[in-house]
Structures are given as structure tokens and as C-alpha cells.
Design goal:
- It is a single chain.
- The protein contains 11 helices and 7 strands.
- With about 325 residues, the chain is of the alpha/beta class.
- The longest helix has 22 residues.
- A hairpin with a 2-residue loop joins β2 and β3.
- Strands 1, 2, 3, 4, 5, 6 and 7 form a 7-stranded mixed sheet that branches.
Length: about 325
């Protein structure tokens, strides 16, 4: 469980207008997560079954269970720093997860801590990280853990290139999903890199999965027994196996990207955590980010004793071709 910030932290983040949120009047708290939902009106849960009759809809419990399992894997097992312990989020007191009828998409993760002034927070409210989830998804859909991984990304780096954000978040889904995601050969030319990585979003995961498989072919997570046995309300497993290739690589990459974006901030005279959205997403950073990826891959390959192959050699050779 993550300790919450002091109440005075409410003054250290922006306050959202109530109009930014649908009318959600119930919440379920599990550790640092507050699942906010309603049983009435336009945004009512389509499925409010409560099989264990504890007063909390199964959908809400299952979302909380998945988020806790994801946090334990990412922080306890992989060793990633929890988003609330990052300097950017020093004043946050919770991760608030809003279940409602979204107009577009299945989920969204916000990159700035905000005071939403929920009625349960008292007059001053408190700072929170925010995740939105479509309330009509099947209870065990892995969107919650995907969106949670975005919070880890945002804690480490300001870069929001979608080939990085969505590609690695899709990789992270396999911490819960069975097996390993699809792979394809690594790009060995700038043209292939542009077409198969920089121009992609979720599908860029095929590159990340391939890198992970080459660096860590036996990749198994050392899951605590109670975590490995965790189940949803209906008894089905939250985690399907202990396979997740490339966990050490992903941790090393995240730890490298933080110092890199601070260099970019200094070079451009930008506040460390105050980049404009268009600057965070700008393709102008693609080559610089990817050079860092290649450096981390090279270091991890040496560390793990990965055998040299023509595929890996051509991939690493992109370093000198990137400008």
C-alpha cells in the first residue's frame, strides 16, 4: 500500500472544474486507488451484479483487484518507482479511477496531478492522479492495467511519443495476459524504423516484444505466491502466467529516459514538468528517444550475454544513421 500525501498538498496542484467530470456518486477504495462510479443516470454501470453481496458491484471490485495486481507487479516485482513517489507527483494522495460512459475510447490516463474536489474529500479536496475507464467493458478486460502503466510512464518521463507510450503499455498488458504478445523482425533500416515503429501506436508493441524476447528469452517474473493466486470475484485468475520477457530492459529504459528529457528541458529552456502537450508528443524527439533505446538495448545485451545476430547488429547500427 502507498502512503498518501498530507492534506495540505491540495494546494500544490490545479483544481478541475466539476464540469470536467460526469456525475458519479459512489466510490470504492482499495489501497491508493479510488474507483468512482454511479448506479444511476446516463453513466450508471450497465452491469451492477454483486455476486458476493458485499455492497460493491463486481465490476468495481474487479477493476480494483486488477489495478492492485498491476501495481504490485510493476513496483514490487519489476522494481519500477510508483507514480505517486515520483518528483512530478510528490503531492498526490490517490489514484482516482472514474468509470463512466466514455464518448470515445476504452480508457484514458492523465499525466498531471489534479484536485477534483470530490464530495468525499472535504472542502479543500486533495491532489490525485486520474484514470478514466469505459464502464461497459467486460469485468476482466486489461484496459485498467494498460492505463496504470501509462501513469508509470508519465512519472518517469515527459516524452509522449505514441510508439513509445502505447507500444510499451501493450507490452505491459502481458504481465496479466497469457503468453507473450506478437513479434516481428527488428527494423534494420531508417525506412523500416519510420514505417514500423515511429508511424505506429499500439502495433509498435511488436518491436518491443521482439527486443524483449531477444534480450530475455526465458523472462519469468518472480511473483509472490499470494499475488500469483489472486482472483477476480468469479474466481478466475488475475494473472495467467509468470511470463513477461524484458522486464529488466524496460526498467533500465525508463530510468534512462528521465535524464534525457531533463537534458531536452534544459536545452530548450522548458520547465522540467511543464512541457506543452505538443512538445511532449512532438516527433522531433523520436530520433533522440530511439538513440537512447538503442543504448539501453546494447547495454542489456552485454549484461545478459545475448548472442550477436545479423538482425540485432542491423538494429543497433541504426544508432549512427539517426540524426
Amino acid at each position: 500500500m502507498i502512503a498518501t500525501a498530507l492534506p495540505s498538498a491540495a494546494q500544490e496542484c490545479g483544481t478541475a472544474r466539476k464540469a470536467n467530470l460526469p456525475r458519479l456518486d459512489r466510490s470504492h477504495v482499495r489501497d491508493e486507488f479510488r474507483i468512482v462510479y454511479t448506479l444511476h443516470g446516463e453513466h450508471a454501470l450497465p452491469d451492477a451484479r454483486d455476486a458476493n453481496r458485499n455492497g460493491v458491484p463486481d465490476k468495481v471490485e474487479d477493476v480494483a483487484t486488477q489495478l492492485v495486481a498491476g501495481r504490485r507487479i510493476f513496483s514490487e516485482v519489476m522494481g519500477l518507482t510508483h507514480p505517486m513517489r515520483q518528483a512530478r507527483n510528490a503531492h498526490t494522495a490517490s489514484i482516482d479511477v472514474f468509470l463512466f460512459k466514455m464518448e470515445k475510447g476504452n480508457g484514458r490516463s492523465y499525466d498531471e496531478a489534479t484536485n477534483y474536489r470530490l464530495g468525499t474529500d472535504g472542502y479543500k479536496g486533495h491532489c490525485a492522479l486520474r484514470i478514466d475507464l469505459l464502464n461497459s467493458h467486460s469485468n476482466q478486460n486489461v484496459t485498467p492495467v494498460h492505463e496504470l502503466f501509462h501513469q508509470y510512464q508519465y512519472g518517469y518521463t515527459m516524452f509522449k511519443a505514441r510508439w513509445f507510450l502505447e507500444g510499451t503499455a501493450r507490452w505491459a498488458e502481458y504481465a496479466l495476459r497469457p503468453g507473450m504478445g506478437p513479434e516481428r523482425p527488428l527494423p534494420g533500416t531508417l525506412q523500416a524504423l519510420q514505417a514500423r515503429v515511429f508511424a505506429e501506436t499500439y502495433e509498435a508493441s511488436a518491436m518491443w516484444n521482439r527486443v524483449a524476447a531477444l534480450l530475455d528469452p526465458d523472462g519469468r517474473l518472480k511473483l509472490p505466491a499470494d499475488l500469483a493466486r489472486s482472483t477476480y470475484v468469479d474466481g478466475s485468475p488475475v494473472i495467467h502466467d509468470d511470463l513477461l520477457r524484458g522486464a529488466a530492459f524496460m526498467k533500465a529504459l525508463f530510468e534512462a529516459l528521465g535524464p534525457l528529457d531533463r537534458q531536452v528541458s534544459a536545452r530548450n529552456g522548458w520547465p522540467a514538468f511543464g512541457w506543452k502537450e505538443e512538445d511532449q508528443r512532438s516527433p522531433a524527439h523520436d530520433a533522440e528517444i530511439f538513440r537512447e533505446v538503442l543504448q539501453v538495448v546494447r547495454a542489456q545485451a552485454r549484461r545478459s550475454g545475448t548472442a550477436a545476430t545479423a538482425e540485432m547488429d542491423a538494429f543497433l547500427a541504426l544508432q549512427s544513421a539517426l540524426h
